[in-house]
């Protein structure tokens, strides 16, 4: 179900097709007509009916659409909640075995006031609390799109509150045991929350992935999460980013600096080997060479490789633009722009990477995480389309000339976007990452404020062209077209650069001499009027644009800067997890070599389907699989199976599908710390109630004493 509310007329809900009224009890409690709804789902639907009857949230604000499967509003809300939670839970709500978690999820959609009391009863507090943050983020975004700021602020308040609560719970675990806290962040809760027989137990999701989807910024900014992110970003040795670049390109530095002077890192068991007797043992990372190998296979190393090729791409792109001399595109003369074709091939590699990732994750999931790459690929696609039309179309077609102009325009825009994308490289540094964040947040203000500038700009440009007579004085209209006149009239005056002719009021076919009152003619009066009004219009325009509008937008940007500067470090730390996931799952081979990789893989895939000849291509595909990115959660799950084999828990890793002992201990640790926090919260609440009660008693005594004194003073007189 599409959760986005389109602009324009709001949707109209159609629940009253069976002549029910909102005040009618049947409208809320009539059972579902769909026979596929089980008893557990009916209980949830009845609970949702009760909540909606109290809150009137989904009906009043047209959040949902009618679902013919259900006869009540609760059934449609139930379907809406299922669709919203599907990317996280990966199952139907009836397949979640913790009833308190179900109650918490349902209550969070209605922004109930008893969320904290329900949360304290959940079996898996840290996962349940982040689910509330996720629901609040989705509902906040939904009501913001419907222009309901009051409700959106209420959900944002719940989101921030539970983000802080989950962060406090993580902090409590972190100070109790750092090692167990790392296991908490590594726990796959899909092994715990589902009912028996649910296929979703095969899904993999770590806690930080849920926090990232919920935009729990404080949670991901906690030192426990930051250590885990840094641990996975650069295992083996702990080096700064600039030092990592030097060590990556100059391996002898490992030996020149000495083994003992480099800070080592104990990293997790991710590799296994089999001895001569057939037993599996883990490879320890105490060996220096293995640490170096881990250094060169880290996500940070992949980041260095892709960054290097991106810099080469921008430099080569700039060289192509500066040396481009062709004025047309002819099919038989393609050798004149082979360098441009090289850029097009490089851009085809980016499009191929996008197509593969969209096929693996879905378009909306990929676009949400890679919005900038989506816009870049839009420009690349438009460039390729215009370029193809310009080459294929016959010279007699008028569309060919416009296709050449469009191809060049998109080609330049692609270069501008490629250079701006280089700022993403600076996100690895805290200082430059904060600057990039501020620019990103300020750009929407500039874009919106540009409309205000354009209103005054267009008004002045039309008046100036009319008074100065530029359009009429042009001998051929094709020499200076009117859009360029509108742009040039008033563009640079915004920055205080006025033309001398405009200051003097120069008008074509009019002299600059003052008006002769002895000989007054129609033409002399009109020339005097135009030459006088041009400086007046220029003064008013520069007063409004240079003084008022520029200072106003400067004040808005200054306020935005102050607001962002307070949380920029938190937002930068929050984005580190997205960067980590991006480069963990990224292909090792960068563009344009990735295009050859995918072509070779596709060729081997089809050859592997041939019964006899397909053995060699199938083996070659396994070699190519080494260069593909890995999903951390799935890799950890696979290695936990082998760890269970080594510990003697099971004999076959393919039969293992349950949580490990570390995961069970981490869940118990969170429960214990949640009990401690809840007991402390109750104690503080009790103390607050006692203080409030005592304060009310004291105020009551003071009031009674003052009343007695007033009565006594009145009786005395």
TrEMBL record:
GO cellular component: plasma membrane
Transmembrane segments: 239-256, 303-322, 343-363, 375-394, 401-423, 443-463, 536-557, 595-620
A GO term, aspect molecular function: monoatomic cation channel activity
The keyword 4Fe-4S appears for this protein: no
Swiss-Prot/TrEMBL keywords: Membrane, Transmembrane, Transmembrane helix
InterPro entries the record matches: TRPM (IPR050927)
BP-aspect Gene Ontology terms: metal ion transport; monoatomic cation transmembrane transport
Protein name in the entry: Ion transport domain-containing protein
Species of the source: Caenorhabditis elegans
